[in-house]
Amino acid sequence: MAERTPQEMPTGERPDLVPLTLLVNGDMYTTEAGPMAIFHEVLEQTVPAQQLKGHRIRISTQSGEEIFPDMFIGETAAHFQTHTFHVEATPLREMAEGAANVPWTNLGFDHIAITVADRADAKIFLSEALGMTVVRDDRHQTVLTTGNTAIFCFGTEIAPLSDGLPSRWHHLGFVVDNLEAAYQHLARYAEKRRAERGENTSGTLSSDFMLLERNERWSLYCHYRNGETSLMIQLSEIKPEARGFANPQRFTDQMYDYLSGRYGVRFEEESTSQPEQQS
Which of 12, 169, 176, 275 measures 20 to 30 Å from 242, CA to CA? Predict the structure, then answer.
């Protein structure tokens, strides 16, 4: 059994800590966390990196109920009436040998997550003024969608994976067609940038390199540093059974395909293609 120093998540006031036991492939880790901590962060802070990095991570209760990495510790423990959770960590190399050479495609924005000063008013504006549909609105976040893309609104309270500063994106969510191949590509890119620029400098990429399971997708999070700013990116592969739209023509018949050809006027090309003037 391994024990780590109890972790507290900032929530604006000191909460009662929740005791936790994590059974990672049979190894036991005990810790304590604030009720507003999420499983993703507690895993990083409690379990050795070699048991998480380069693994698919599936979390469940002892009786098999699925737990997702962005669920909150306090309400999850209370709902399932347990403080013990199983973590299945499956090495990617065993699952997809040779994936480093497999091509992958970024299919575009799936969602953008932003931090706003007034979440209630943002919901009103995005739904009433812009016609988006509210699909979630609780004390944690507000999610609105047009069907093919979504906006996640977070408040300014200090919360997991957020510094609480308004008018910044919380994270940017892309969908890819092969997350394991994307993982291999990003791991090589991060190593290359570290070799070129050093640790924690502008232009570097960092990640826990865990593939985390949600009900409809697998996701990988990374942080790209640009100057003094760190930008969080989420790459997701949608599970086969959750892919597609009930009415795909709603999008394919109305939306613009930016890949259909060259976009916009390029004046510099026009100037170089003009016939020379005779003097």
Answer: 169
